[in-house]
Give the backbone structure.
Amino acid sequence: MSTFDQILGRKVTPLEPALLDAACRQVHSVLIDVGTGQGKFILDAAREEINRLCIGIDAVAENMAASARTARSSPKKGGLPNALFVRAAAERLPGPFAGLADELTVQYPWGSLMRIVSQPAIEHLSSLRALCKPEARLSVLLNYSVFEDRPYLERLGMGDIVDPADNPDLITAYATAGFTVTNRELIHGDPPIRSAWGRHLVRGSARATLMIDAIADPTWQGR
Ligand SMILES: C[S@@+](CC[C@H](N)C(=O)[O-])C[C@H]1O[C@@H](n2cnc3c(N)ncnc32)[C@H](O)[C@@H]1O
């Protein structure tokens, strides 16, 4: 297993930087979704705009296998040459993706990725910032019910995380990591995108989503 593996269905292969370069040269913009899970959002985004390279990154290859297979099928069968799936841990970014993203998304994360964007963990949030072009847009969606249930959060080993909807230090921490927060808002009802987990967690329930929008600060000096 290398640090950055391309998912080709069940098979994985070390990501070729030359392939990534070539893919970037063929498009107008790049979207990166970290913690992409099953990758349906990436398939939708790639289908919606064929001149955008849509890269789904997740720590678990199996999650992305079916979407990667769909993306690699022939265009007649719904193939999407502008969708790419990569196994990598958020903590090891940016690697070959440095400075590529016009748009960056993190949707309904769990585990260490949830900590990175909700605490936030500045060192690793900076790694996400390093994926971005200056003034790239960041959109984070969090399953807010986790933060309303403190005993559950403690069982996850994250009892130290201050409510990210309220934490006055969150905006300063994002700024230190190179992101200017433009919106922090609780939304109720269906998630605004096709997120398997967003639907599973939020749809038809009283659960809320915390949305954090930010812009990559063009004056950020790096990590
Ligand atoms: C609840 S799923 C959400 C998947 C998808 N974004 C969605 O909305 O349907 C959370 C995903 O985050 C991934 N993840 C958690 N920590 C990660 C990390 N440190 N680096 C990369 N992926 C991570 C998990 O493997 C999992 O697929």
